[in-house]
Write a structure and sequence with these properties.
The structure is a homotetramer. Chain A has about 190 residues and is mostly helical. Chain A has a single domain, classed as Tetracycline Repressor, domain 2, CATH 1.10.357. Chain A contains ten helices and no strands. In chain A, helix 7 crosses helix 9, helix 8 packs across helix 9 and helix 9 runs antiparallel to helix 10. The longest helix of chain A has 26 residues. The termini of chain A are far apart. Chains C and D meet through helix 7, helix 9 and helix 10 of C and helix 7, helix 9 and helix 10 of D. Chain B binds a DNA duplex (21 and 21 nucleotides) through helix 1 and helix 3.
DNA sequence: CATGAATGAGGTTTCATTCAT
DNA sequence: AATGAATGAAACCTCATTCAT
């Protein structure tokens, strides 16, 4: 009968929020944002429909929550303080690390590319991902600049696009996509 | 008093069908399949909602119609009878041609990549596009094979993915994506 | 190039009208009035949708046409001039004749009972069939009156209802309904 | 603040479901299945259109619910454990009871005969009613068999059909149909 | 914090009917 | 007399969201 302590409440809140986010992530990634109903998320999370709205104001808000939660998980990966220019070795490590991250969080990145191509939700997308993307490209541009590439900016963009393409292929084709071999070739060509 | 002749009817049908398909293409590409309502297509086409169903049995059927119509436009591009192995010059022409095609039909290819990442509708996607994709990769594989590439299959896949990534980037970022320069770099690296 | 003569036109009109009516009859009987679309009637009749409206002002009007056409076919059966009271022999003949008529025009009677139970269209039904039904009952009432039945009116109604029930059973169950035997029993009990 | 208890929710559900079923019953019976819109049912039930679908998956499902609910009400009538052969007195009681039941639930039986004659929805009809009908006929066949009737099966069918016919007449003609007197005659003739 | 009944706008689709390059 | 393209109202159904015996 004793009421829950604040701490207990907070724990419950965090736990439930996490379940909701993870459930939503899977469904959004698999069926698309519009193809996923709040009902189905509630069901998968084992939570009532109404309770969803105690955690997120709207479906759109929930999507945002999913994305932010996902990005936070990669904070350490991206926050590489080192603004130094990459060595060839570091370049290779960065590329391989990138795909490691994707391999380890397929669902999240599926959602990422799903939204990537869905312009209507893009406002949100741009808002959340753009900064990180630009930073990414900037690092590569510096790398190619340092290598005296003829057109460092274009090459960096090309590399970024190739990374997108390979990721997308891997995520959609699944096991039939020989990711490791393709990445080897990519490093060969781009390092 | 006299009814329309068969020829007149045929013309009307063709014209209306074309208007519907073109309207649907734009909206599907912009807002996604699920994000587009039949209502909005009808409005854009300047046609009644009901009339849509005189031309296509369902929304899904309309999408199929849009895709087939689009592909037919590229028939000459893909039907390259030459099954010979590409020379370096031909390789470059093929790549540049590919992007020319995309540049000239941005909307269609926007839809293409939109569906590409939308697994729910993918059944349809696979059905229609898979054959052509495989042929594409096969040609590149032969090319790299001929060049005694270490891993022709992986390189071909990498190239295919890079093409996807560049196309996607160009289509989504618009004018701020320096397509020509990126393609130059791509050819440099992959030829 | 010579225009059709009036006579030719009339013939065409009659022939087309008949085809429409017969097609509509089958579909109305099978799928119900509401379950049948004008489109499907046009198709079955091998006629354009628009042309239907050159013959009947509306769907309801077409139904009316179907019913009237059907009833006209039985004119000779019902117009039995003899207002004399039936003998037992004549009674049996009338009953057997009734079922002969139903057996020979199953589709029409299927429609009849279909409408019978569909109150919404009943306005029409009552308008067309009520007079004939009352005459029917009157004949039987006279018959039982003559036989000094305890309650001629009720018996006549009972017989009418039994005829309805047997007809309905036969029309709906099809071959598995032993019509002849049932009718034998009916005559035995009611004569 | 506190949510409804499970018991409260259950009560609400039962009450609302009942209102929906009863509203649907009346409209289906009066206007036919196809002639009744979900909208009109919602309105009559004082419920939103959408809420209908929280209780029944589809219109067809709702019809099924209506039929099952109706049949459940007669469970005690049909579950007559006595598989003994009917005496004449029992026969009379059964027949009169049958009409008592119809008189007390006119709307349901109106729907019954409405569907009876509507082949399109008949699949459902057959599924739900056929078993009970056959049992009915079987009881009468045993009765006539015991009475050394010339053709017990045909007589039982005739009786069944007569019951149908009388019921239908009573339900459709309303007060102008002298049910009691007709039933008296029926018992006289068939006992 | 949690439930699920309820709403209503909006989606896809059907169909009787009209009309005319 | 005949065609079939076109319309628009209305049907069935879904779903994000709100709210409380």
């Amino acid at each position: 009968m004793s009421p829950r302590t604040d701490k207990q409440n907070k724990e419950i809140r965090q736990k439930t929020e996490l379940i909701i986010i993870e459930s939503a992530l899977v469904l959004f990634a698999e069926d698309g944002y519009l193809g996923t109903s709040m009902q189905s998320i509630a069901k998968k999370a084992g939570v009532s429909k109404g309770n969803l709205y105690n955690y997120f104001d709207s479906k759109q808000d929930l999507l945002e929550g999913v994305l932010i939660h996902g990005l936070n998980q990669f904070a350490d990966f991206f926050d590489e303080d080192s603004f130094d220019i990459l060595s060839e070795k570091e370049f290779e490590i960065a590329i391989r690390g990138n795909f490691e991250m994707i391999r380890a969080n397929k669902t999240f990145w599926k959602l990422y590319y799903n939204l990537f191509a869905q312009p209507k939700v893009q406002g949100l997308f741009t808002k959340i991902f753009a900064p990180f993307l630009e930073q990414y490209i900037a690092i590569f541009e510096a790398y190619y600049n340092n290598k005296e590439d003829k057109n460092p900016k274009a090459t960096a963009l090309l590399l970024g696009s190739a990374l997108d393409g390979v990721s997308l292929g891997y995520l959609l084709m699944g096991k039939s996509y020989p990711l490791n071999e393709v990445v080897d070739q990519l490093i060969e060509k781009f390092k």
